[in-house]
Amino acid sequence: MTTGPMEGGPMPDTASPPGPAASNASLRAYLRGLPGVDEVGARERAGELAARSIKSAAKGRAIDLAIRMVDLTTLEGADSPGKVRAMSAKAAHPDPADPSAPAAAAVCVYPDLVSVAVAALRGTGVGTASVATAFPAGRAPLEAKLAETRHAVASGATEIDMVIDRGAFLSGDYRKVVEEIAAVKEASGSAHLKVILETGELGTLDNVRRACWLAIRAGADFVKTSTGKVAPAATLPGTLVMLEAVRDHHANTGARVGVKAAGGIRGTKDAVRYLVLVNEVAGAAWLTPDLFRIGASSLLNDLLMQRTRLASGTYPGPDYFTLD
């Protein structure tokens, strides 16, 4: 929660916010002028929304929507072409026994496996996302980050998930953060750019808000909570602040930026809590895979199990769905 208007009113913006070419001094001054985040209030609000329930009649629609928002992800050193092909088949047809089950939004892999995912997903409508920019730490020269991004795009990636330089951000070098995001955005070409803030390393919700603003101003199509490699990963309070940021950006500019919650979202109940958060904070316009994603690996199986239970009245066995 900001100290400015909430619930339906945009957060106040300064008259002349600095653009991507602004100096570090002007960026610092602008960020200091943003309303602070009431951390206690944000956590209370997130808790209140998490406690809400949805009607049984709406649960099936919520589950299908959550499935459509999943970026089915594998980011392990042991990833292989075979694993990526199997995961791609599952993303396109999550429940082969039920053709009405919707497909996932995208498959997310490392850059060297993008071409495998692209080939496996051709004609399915499922996107191919690639992490880039020295994921997950981001500790590499900009030239290497851009080369990795260009390689992923040339291999067919339709989405790029980049990580910000948290060291630069936390030391106040906001200019470097903005320049890197803008450069990666240019290297991404027509691919959508998701900017990973790694909220678990930013320390405060004020910093989450500031990092969101920098990413949005630098050209992000999505702001993303986490790599999934740092604890805590996605949290409801952190995601609430990010949703406020994109809501306020839309109110001030008319442009919509998406949000991706990634890491630690494993069950249907958690996924539904995030959908409630999106609806109540950003609004129903964000309840689409074009503007909200959930990065996960194990979540999809639980969504499918709950979906089957709603249809049949019984849970499928633990080995009914393939393991990711």
From TrEMBL:
One of its GO terms (cellular component) is cytoplasm. One of its GO terms (molecular function) is deoxyribose-phosphate aldolase activity. It catalyses: 2-deoxy-D-ribose 5-phosphate = D-glyceraldehyde 3-phosphate + acetaldehyde. GO terms for biological process: carbohydrate catabolic process; deoxyribonucleotide catabolic process. Keywords: Lyase, Schiff base. The keyword Ion transport does not apply. Pathway: Carbohydrate degradation; 2-deoxy-D-ribose 1-phosphate degradation; D-glyceraldehyde 3-phosphate and acetaldehyde from 2-deoxy-alpha-D-ribose 1-phosphate: step 2/2. InterPro entries: Aldolase_TIM (IPR013785), DeoC (IPR011343), DeoC/FbaB/LacD_aldolase (IPR002915). Residues 1-24 are annotated as: Disordered. It is an enzyme of class 4 (lyase). The keyword Membrane does not apply. SUPFAM superfamilies: Aldolase. It comes from the Bacteria. Its EC number is 4.1.2.4. Belongs to the DeoC/FbaB aldolase family. DeoC type 2 subfamily. PANTHER family: DEOXYRIBOSE-PHOSPHATE ALDOLASE (PTHR10889). This is Deoxyribose-phosphate aldolase. It comes from Lipingzhangella halophila.
